Amino acid sequence: MVGQALFILTAGITLLMALGVVLARNLFHAALFLVGAFFGIAVLFILLEAEFLGAAQIIIYIGAIATLIVFAIMLSRHVMGKEAGAYNRNWYFALAGVVFFFLLLGWLLIKMPFNLVTAEVPADAIAQIGQGFVGHYVVPFEVASVLLLVALIGAIMLARER
Amino acid sequence: MHDYPFVFNLTWLIPLPTALAFFAIIFFTNPKKRLSSNVAIGAVIIAWILSWAVAFAFFLKPELTEHPFDLHVPWLPMGEIAFHMGVAVDAVTAGMLFMVGFVLTMIFIYSSGYMTFPGHLDPKQYPEAAKEGLDPRYSRFFAYISLFATGMLGLVVADNLLMLFIFWEIMGLCSYLLIGFWFDKSYPDPNQITPKQAGLKAFLTTRVGDVLFMMGLIFLFIHAGTLNFQAIFANVEFMEELAAATVTLPVFGAVSWAVLISILIFWGAIGKSAQFPLHVWLPDAMEGPTPVSALIHAATMVSAGVYLIVRMAPLFAASSHGVNGAMTFVAFIGAFTALFAATIGVAQKDIKKVLAYSTISQLGYMFAALGIGAWVAAIIHLLVHAFFKALLFLGSGSVIHGVEHGHHHVHEHGHGHDDEHGHEEYFDPQDMFNMGGLLKRMPITGWTFIAGALSLSAFPFITAGFWSKDEILAHAWDGGHMAVYWTLAIGAFLTAFYTFRQVFLTFFGKPRTEAAEHAPESVRAMTWPLIGLAFFAIFGGFVAVPKSFPVFGKIFSDFMIKLMEMQGEFYPFLHVAPAEFHWTPAIISMTLALSGIVVAWLVYGWKPLEAGQPDPLKRWLGPVYTVLEKKYYFDEFYHLIAVRPTLWLASFFARFDRGVIDRIVNWVGAFGRWLAATLRKWFDEYVIDGAVNGVGLVTTWTGAVVRLIQTGQAQTYLLILLLSVAVLLLLIPLR
Amino acid sequence: MNVSDIIRLLSPELILLITGFVVIGVDLARRREDEGRTAAAVAVVGLILAALAAIFLYFSSPNQIVFYTMAIDLYGLFFKVAAFIGVALVIIASVNYMAGRSKFLGEFYALLVFAALAISVLVSATNLILIYIGIEFLSITSYILTGFLRGNERSEEAAIKYFLYGASAGAILLFGMSLLFGLTGTTDLAAVGKALEAGGDMHWLGLVALVLVLAGLGYKASLVPFHQWAPDTYDGAPTPISAFLSTASKAAGFAIVGRVFLVAFSDFHPEWTQVLAAIAVLTMFLGNLTALKQKSVKRMLAYSSIGQAGYILLGLVAVSNDPTFGGVNGLMIYLFGYIFTNVGAFLLLLPIEKKSGGSTDMEQFDGLATRAPGLALLMSLFLISLAGIPPTAGFIGKFYVFASVINQRMIVLGALAAVNTVIAAFYYLNVIRHMYFAESAVEGGVTVGRGLMTVLAINAIMVLAIGIFAQFFMTWVNSSLALVTASGF
Amino acid sequence: MTVPLSWYLIFATALFSIGFFGVLARRNAIAVLMGVELMLNAVNVNLVAFWRYLTPTDLSGQIFVVFVFAVAAAEAAVGLALMISIYRTRKSINVDELNELKL
Predict the structure, then answer these.
(1) Which of A104, A145, A153 to mutate to test the interface with C (most CBs of C within 10 A)?
(2) Please, which pLDDT band fits residue C159 given cuts at 50, 70 and 90?
(3) Crossing angle for the helix pair C411-437 and B161-179, nearest 10 degrees?
(4) Overall average pLDDT of the B513-518 stretch
(5) End-to-end CA distance of chain D, in Å?
(6) B579-612 per-residue burial string, b: 16 or more CB within 10 A, e: under 16
(7) Binning pLDDT at 50, 70 and 90, where does residue C197 land?
(8) Is D24's CB within 8 Å of B714's CB?
(9) Concatenated DSSP letters for A13-42?
């Protein structure tokens, strides 16, 4: 029961934060809500006994991605004054579409037959993850590192002052 | 292995010289006009020599009909086996090579004289070309016709249906380029079709047939595993299987595969050979330069449709075992088109349009012949028709050229009326009513044209056209196909009538315009090909004189017929039976042909028209004629059931009782006009407009939808992505 | 499997990786001096070496799984060779175009090499994780390349739209993959396929994942209704990049759609055949009808390439075990020929754009036959191939795809496709009409650089070669149908 | 493990939908990107939940998530760089004003 209560609390707060991200008119506030949502998800990871991912979530999402976003907001700050609306003209279509999508997909997901397995998480989970990176998943790992490098080059090239 | 003369191994070279000429002209000789035409003519002469070498090698060894030559290499792998591309020579190919090689060469030589600086262009815009006196796009013209020649020669020697289709498409593309050659020509009348539009119309109309053709081809391939003609037709078991196996179609119900494939392939021929209801492109294709009309209408593209059906005849024959025989369909379309187009030809005033409708009509004869099983007669008529029709087209080109020159001559010397007003009135050099008396001015053109006209009218005994047409009629009579016989016989009367109407209007009487009065004879590059073609137009038919015909039959051998009959026996199912010569049908058709000429003489030759005098038919028919003259594209029903009987009746009765008949004619004419207008309106509104609007509506509608969704807004795109996904997801539980 | 085996099997990827770095290094050393020519040369050499390595592998040791996630099979190698050649052609043609337009030429060529690497990985991937990484790798390099003309509003706009669309589609793809993982407990394609097959009564819920994956992968192949980014992006991107996106990148999209559907969703074959058939029809009609109305040739080609995607998809719709008309071989030969045809057609726009200062409206093609007969003939050849008229590569592709469709007795689908070829012929011919039948408003010839002329000539030769020596190419394609479905080392 | 798997899935779907709404409705490109990040996070929740409830002993699920992190970081870097670049040219990064290319 404690688990359930904890889940509902975290999930609820995270969803509220997420709503804040998409609803806040001020971009800066939205970014702060985003950090909150990331944090909530990190908590959920820990609830799911994926501590490594929880930590990684905080370091990567909050430490890197959210920071990048804040930088970008600051660099383009003065455009987002009060004059411009936060939403485009079709937001109600978007809302209807998204709600429809949510109900449909949620309904289908509830019907899904998943083969649940009850087992303990291995104690050396982090070590296994590390082995995965140099074992089965070495090709994706290497490709991902090249990808990050390419993204770095591209980002520098694109964002540099002309 | 059979022992073939060595020259057969060179068959695959036949389409090559002109292909090389095409590339040479495009890439190298393009700026030099005379060099370009010489390259093209040189290439086509090489092709001609090769064609005749192969053709005569075959003629000299008729026993080869039992094992025709076939040389091929693998092209597309098909699982275990491979699809082969290659060349084949049998009697039909040899006959076609004989005709195509010669006619192409004549047309090429003629073109070098014909393609002078055209009247519709402003010499100031093309000072260089005007100085040379040649068309600014002279080189390009020779590049196109070279590629066209490649298409035709390749089609003739192809040993399989796919390769035939490929060359068929090459020709389609070239005809598009060539019909629209004078793309910058426009007319004061906005309703008159321009060359540009005509080219597109031709391409799209034939493409409808081509798509069905390709479907038939794929079906045949899936069933047979090959498209090689000999391999398919020699396989009796397979053909029987194909005729027996049925497929259930919507609307038509169960039909045999052989019928379905035959009819799909026949649609390709309907498009290419301008048969009803896909005939509409051909008259407009006259917008191209005249040598192009000769290329497309006589020797090559349109006869390619007939050639295709000749090639596929065993399949058609096999398919007629069942009830819905495909051959009945072919016979019906052919006979109907033969009569229908002939009726239209009667009231044209454009010298080339008459020939265009006559071509549609003559092709109809060939299809009718194929439909009743007169395979040999169809081939013979195909070959003979090519000679005299190329002759007539080139002759008409020579006439047009002369009249145009006369027109310019008049203008340069300042005694035209137009100059006083400071602007030039539109003068149509192709209008026969602007001509008259040209035989004196242009004797070579005139006499050769008359030779061609006699042949087309099937003037008895001495012309090629008589023998080939007689062969078809004899078959129809023999086989008891009376409906076909009489349709074609009436068509023969009309053919003679409109042909000689043309001859009398153009060459006899007095010149009706100053242009015609000053028309000079054409240059030698144009007259020599006319003479060459005239020779075959008259004497070519003697290869088709039946043995049983008195005197002639003894003198001339029926060698060509024999050869084709032997070839036909090679293919199972074809049942080639020689037609006996019968006096009854021969006399009927002779009478009809001669009376057609006589009627034409009575109307146009007896008292030649004066300048500005309208067509006498117009006076008697009044409103009906106006309808025709207004270039109403004579919708089909109208022609068959209203105009033709009216015209025919009118011209018949008016001869002996003008006073009485006048009123009736007027009434019939008025009725005809009303009927025509109603039908045309109906046809236009619901069929033509419907189709055009439908197409327009669909594109507009698509445009509107796309404009609605392709807003440039990335978020709209994503919303559509999301909704599409949602709709697809929704389908899952609804499944 | 020892080290030398691994190096051998992954040699195309390793060569590309090294090439990418060398290109950047070379350019750093020679920047300004030669406007990226050396870098481009190195990149092309690297791509050719990689293609040769792939061809070599093709003959030596096909059909092995490397490191659990990659299958070095003939199917993948086929697409690798095709994509490497396509990218190399794009690079050669870019040299003159990009010189002076950007300061970062080394990066430009390096990114194209990395894009080739991404395609190379993607077409061999047999694991959901590697597929995701490969798709995103290809996408991210494509975003950068699309927005490469900094300061050019159209290029930047195209890039950001592509980015937003691609990132969202990627998230949807990922959602679908997570469901597949949830339903089967594995990320290996073959194992996923087996698990779905054994799914029992409820197995059809896998369709949910199928739909999401289709949306996420289909956008790469620009299938309607996931195509909308394509016209805008092709229009705004630097023209060589449009050529790249509409050919090599699209081919990779089809390759992976094919592999995922044939291996992981093989059990849903009856369902996805219907869905893909509907999508193919939509794609053909929307692409072709919209192309009909375009005034700019570049945009017309953008829509035409959507229409082409519809024909290509038919190959997958009509997939069967028939050795001759198996569908997939049609898809492959179609794509192979299409790469040369479309790269040629897009690159031909370069001299036209240069002459007109950026416009590719139909009027710019008026009278091209007089001004530049060779260029007009090449363009006609590419358009004829796109229209599927023999004897070109386009005809061979259409022939196999249509024959497969008819062979599967999908008569209505075949008829709809045939209708589309007629519509398409209309607008392709329209360009030919402008080139041959119109007086030009513009005076003077069109100059073509040596590099571009070489590329166009290669394309033209290949378009004709595939059409004429179809035997040779089809043998190759037919032998490439092997899909490695076994998992594990 | 008192929390049913479906709760996680519903949560993830809700988060995904909220993120998608942000993508569809926000004008500012950076806000759109934040929506994308939410969507990716939702999938991560899915993956981790599946891992925990279906294959706790095989860590492929977690490894998948790490790769998603890497991709998300790369995507964010490139996306934000693009936005800054277009901001310099147009002085605006409103997505609905980027419609020079259409039809």
Answers:
(1) A153
(2) very high
(3) 40
(4) 74
(5) 53
(6) bebbeebbebbbebbbebbebbbebbbeeebeee
(7) confident
(8) no
(9) HHHHHHHHHHH-SSHHHHHHHHHHHHHHHH
- pLDDT tier, C19 (very low <50, low <70, confident <90, very high otherwise): very high
For C203, the token pair is 């197995």
Q: Which two tokens stand for residue C199?
A: 């799914």
D13 pLDDT above the threshold of 90: yes
The SS3 of residue C42 is helix
Looking at the structure of chain A, the number of domains it has is 1
When CB atoms are compared, the residue of D24, D25, D100 closest to B712 is D100
Structure tokens at C229: 């980014």
Tell me how many residue pairs between chain B and chain C have CB atoms under 8 A apart. 150
Q: Which of B724, B731, B735 to mutate to test the interface with C (most CBs of C within 10 A)?
A: B724
Q: What are the φ and ψ backbone dihedral angles of C330, each rounded to 5 degrees? A: -65, -45
List the structure tokens of B650.
Answer: 């009118």
Nearest to D102 among B711, B719, B722 (CB): B711
Q: Which structural domain, as residue segments, surrounds residue A65?
A: 2-159
**pLDDT recorded at residue B413:** 62
CA distance linking residue C401 with residue C403, whole number of Å = 5
Residue B34 is given by DSSP the state H
Question: Is pLDDT larger for residue B201 or for residue B353?
Answer: B353
HSE (CB half, 13 Å, CA atoms) of C125? 29
Closest-CA residue to B381 (of B334, B445, B340, B343): B334
CATH number for the domain spanning A84: value is 1.20.120.1200
Indicate the pTM of the whole model: 0.73
Nearest-Cα distance to chain C for A94, in Å, is 14
* Cβ <8 Å between A146 and C129: no
Contacts of D96 in chain B (CB under 8 A): 713, 715
CB A102 within 8 A of CB D17: yes
Cβ neighbours of C439 (radius 10 Å):
10
Check CB contact under 8 Å for C151 and D89: yes
CATH architecture group of domain D5-97: Orthogonal Bundle (1.10)
Of B2 and B456, more confident: B456
Q: What is the pLDDT of residues C262-299, one digit of tens each?
A: 999 988 888 899 999 999 999 998 888 888 778 889 98
Q: Which residues of D touch B715 (CB under 8 A)?
A: 23-25, 32, 95-96
D→B contacts (Cβ < 8 Å), by residue, are 20, 23-25, 32, 95-96, 98-103
The per-residue pLDDT for range D22-52, each reduced to its tens digit, is 999 998 899 999 999 999 999 999 999 999 9
pLDDT, position B714? 85
Question: Which of D18, D37, D78 is the closest to A154 by Cβ?
Answer: D78
Q: Six-digit token pair at B71? A: 């040389």
- The answer to whether B686 touches D75, Cβ cutoff 8 Å, is no
